[in-house]
Design goal:
It is built from 15 helices and no strands. By secondary structure, the protein is mainly α. Helix 3 runs antiparallel to helix 10 and helix 14 packs antiparallel against helix 15. The radius of gyration is 18 Å and the shape is globular. The model has no long low-confidence stretch (mean pLDDT 83). It comes from Candidatus Doudnabacteria bacterium RIFCSPHIGHO2_01_FULL_46_14. Keywords: Membrane, Transmembrane, Transmembrane helix. One of its GO terms (cellular component) is membrane.
Length: 292
C-alpha cells in the first residue's frame, strides 16, 4: 500500500505540473521550452535531495545501458508528444495518452514479468476507460470521435506513439532503478533529458535563451514540482507493480481537470466528472488488490 500512496503523490504533483504548463503556454512560452523546464529546472532540486540523502548507490553493471536506452526513448516520446500537440487540437490528441496502462498489460509481462491479479486488472482497465472518457467532450463526435481522427490526422498517431513508448520505458525504468536507486536514477535521467532538450531548443526555437531568462522563476517552479514527480514515481515503481504506478499517475488528469475548471473555466465539465468517477473506481480496485 505504501507504493500506492506514493503513486498518488506523483499524480498530485503531475496534475499541478500540467496546470502550471498550461499557464506557461498561455503566457506564450514555446512548448519545447516548457518541456525543457520539466528537466533543466528539476535538476538543482534533485541534486540537492541527493546531497541531503548522503547516499550514493553502487551502480549495477548494466546501469548506463538502461539509462541511455530508457531516456533516449523518452526523448523520442517527448518529441512525438510535442509534434502531436502541434499537429492537432489538444482535446483530440490527449485522450490517446490514456492507453499507456493498456499497453503496459502487454509490455510489463514481456519485459519484467509483472501482471496484476484480477482486482488490479479491473482497476487498470477502469482507469484507462475513465481517463479516455474524461478527455472527451461534445466536440469530439461521440465516444469513437478521437479514433476517427487517426484516419485523417497525424496528431493522434504521434501521441499514440508516445503512449506506446512510455509503456516500454516505464518497465525499463524499474530495471534501471534496481541498478542504482530511485533518487540517483531521477538525477541521471533528468540530466540526460535536460542536456538533450537544451540542445534541441537552442537549435530550433527562436529566442529560446531569452524565453528561459525572462521566465526563470516560473520555470523553476515547474522544475521543483516535476522533481517531486520524479521522486514519487521512481520510489513507487521500486515498491509496487509498474502498471499500478502509471495507472494511478493518470489520476493526475482528474486533478488537472478540476483545477482547469476552477482556473481556466474549461468546458465539458460534466463529461469529465463522469470519467473521473470511473477512474476513482479503478483506483479503489487497485487498492483492494493490495489488501486482498
Amino acid at each position: 500500500m505504501l507504493g500506492i500512496l506514493i503513486a498518488f503523490g506523483a499524480a498530485l504533483a503531475e496534475g499541478t505540473k500540467n496546470v502550471l504548463s498550461k499557464y506557461g503556454l498561455n503566457r506564450r512560452i514555446d512548448e519545447l521550452v516548457v518541456s525543457l523546464s520539466f528537466y533543466l529546472f528539476a535538476m538543482p532540486f534533485l541534486i540537492l535531495y541527493l546531497v541531503l540523502s548522503g547516499h550514493l548507490p553502487e551502480l549495477g553493471p548494466d546501469f548506463w545501458k538502461y539509462l541511455f536506452g530508457t531516456w533516449s526513448l523518452n526523448l523520442i516520446a517527448t518529441v512525438l508528444l510535442v509534434k502531436g500537440i502541434n499537429a492537432g487540437e489538444l482535446s483530440k490528441v490527449i485522450p490517446f495518452l490514456a492507453f499507456t496502462p493498456a499497453f503496459l498489460l502487454i509490455t510489463s509481462p514481456l519485459i519484467i514479468g509483472e501482471f496484476p491479479p484480477a482486482l488490479g486488472l479491473a482497476g487498470v482497465l477502469l482507469i484507462t476507460i475513465g481517463s479516455y472518457v474524461l478527455n472527451l467532450g461534445g466536440e469530439h463526435g461521440g465516444i469513437l470521435g478521437p479514433f476517427k481522427t487517426i484516419l485523417r490526422e497525424k496528431g493522434p498517431r504521434f501521441v499514440l506513439g508516445t503512449a506506446a513508448i512510455w509503456s516500454i520505458t516505464s518497465n525499463l525504468e524499474k530495471i534501471g532503478i534496481s541498478q542504482s536507486s530511485p533518487l540517483f536514477w531521477s538525477v541521471a535521467g533528468s540530466s540526460f533529458m535536460a542536456i538533450a532538450l537544451l540542445i534541441i531548443c537552442l537549435a530550433t526555437v527562436k529566442k529560446a535563451g531569452s524565453q528561459i531568462l525572462q521566465n526563470i522563476k516560473f520555470m523553476s517552479l515547474i522544475g521543483f514540482v516535476n522533481s517531486l514527480v520524479f521522486i514519487c514515481q521512481t520510489t513507487a515503481i521500486s515498491l509496487t507493480l509498474v502498471i499500478y504506478v502509471i495507472s494511478i499517475k493518470r489520476f493526475s488528469i482528474v486533478l488537472a481537470v478540476l483545477m482547469g475548471y476552477a482556473i481556466f473555466k474549461d468546458q465539458s465539465f460534466r463529461t469529465r466528472i463522469a470519467g473521473a468517477i470511473i477512474m476513482f473506481a479503478g483506483v479503489l480496485f487497485i487498492a483492494l488488490s493490495q489488501t486482498a
